Description:
Number of helices: 17
Shape: rod-shaped
Distance between the termini: 174 Å
Largest sheet: 9 strands, mixed
Number of strands: 24
Strand content: 15-25%
Oligomer: single chain
Radius of gyration: 46 Å
Strand order of the largest sheet: 5-4-6-7-3-8-9-10-11
Amino acid sequence: MASESSVSESSVSDDASPPERASVLPKVATGIDGFDAITFGGLPKGRPSLVCGAAGCGKTLFATTFLVNGATRFDEPGVFMSFEERAEDLVANVASLGYDLDGLVAQGKLAIDHVRVERSEIEETGEYDLEGLFIRLGFAVDSIGAKRVVLDTIETLFAGFSDETVLRAELRRLFGWIKDRGLTAIITGERGDGQLTRQGMEEYVSDCVVLLDNRVEDQITTRRLRVVKYRGSAHGTNEYPFLIDAEGISVLPVTSADLDYRIAEGFISTGIPGLDAMLEPGGFHRGTSILISGEAGTGKTMITASMIDAACARGERCMAFVFEESGDQITRNARSIGLDLARHVEAGLLRFEAARPSLYGLEMHLARMHRDIDRFDPALVVIDPLSALRGPPAELQATMVRMIDMLKSRGITAVFTSLREDGEIDQGSAIGVSSLMDAWIKLLNVEANGERARTLYVIKARGMRHSNQLREFTMSSEGIALVDAYIGPAGVLTGTARVVQEAAEAAAALRRAQESRRRQREAVRRRQSLERQIDELRANLEAVEEEEAVLLSEDEMREAVLASERRTLATRRGGTK
Length: 577
């Protein structure tokens, strides 16, 4: 038995590709989201599998889902033999999950049989064996041609055995009968004290053992699943969170630890022109993780609403996981900045998933997101706020890494908001998520002149150039608009302080312009005065020149007269020259 167990429990690391030998063992898909992935195909075909755990961990639901999926999705009828719950109780319990067991029974795809086992009656009839069970189970199987069988729970069935040797023999005979009939069976068992089951033997004769656990930590319940062994097949060995809600049961496989996912091509607009202008390509890389951090009232949710509106306008699906406000409240608030998110919800492009952070544990939140994202297939996911999640620091860090890794592996653009300005997850811890993000937008409230103004700046944006300026932004009925923040000797001024400073600068500029125009007028007056003086001097000069010309002319005339007189005198004297 020891050597057989060592071979049967061979496993591989989680989320690795199944080895070639894993395909040798025939398997039957359970149809349970995630479980078939970690077992590389489902449960062993034609063999019994044990599903064990404490009360309330989901054993009966797991087994019922296995039968319902077999009947509805894989054309494999099934038999549910219960040793505790009556058929009508079982039908009522799973009806809330949308399972119509009565309908499947009417179609001949499912048979439900309740076997009543009473210890007092066993003692009265004497020796107790399983021959009657084989006849009853065989009839149910043959009546519908069943391929799948569930026995729930085995402790009740073996309650009449006091001899451990007989118990072991009958247990082996039951499992052998199942194998001989080629039935794929799930046998549920309750958790024992220090062992997987109460009898401590079922796990050794089962070909596959699945352990379900329902833990309560810090008053929060988390369900986990572990494949303890799987004969002849590799399987994931970690504990996996699984979710039970109105949509059934789903298991969250641990995301791959390899950073080998392919990046998405292209850029996406934020829906805020001023913010796009701060990024060199005009938006963020598609498929990146974006952190928007800031204290309450800085506008984180409204910025994400703008990004959602822009994505939906492009025809892309968006999903928002919100932990502090309902989807209707966010939709109403977004109308104040001119965004109509309701039309995107009605068009099927936008879906809100709202839940209190304390409703689930961290892994349950992650399992829920995993399932919802797989089903809705969004291009943009918003988690608002990330800082609402609570838990031990190690679990917080692991959850954040797995969440981001899950989104990146699908090429989904993710937007996270955080109430912490420094990007930390929790006030009392040094665990930060900013290093895990591709881009980080930090929002600040700046108080001045008795008022508060909102500002933002891009701390980092991997793979692109971006502005390092601090920008003020305003929110109005026309949307979010970015304005330049005044930076001067006294620091950054925003709001009315910026307006006052701009007004003072405008007044100073006006005074300088007026002084310049005054000096220009003075220069004109001086020029005109000088020109008048020049004109007067020029006129005086011309008058002097005219006077000089007249005097010269008169001198010439006198000289001519004197010359004429001398000639006349000379003639009279009788002398000639």
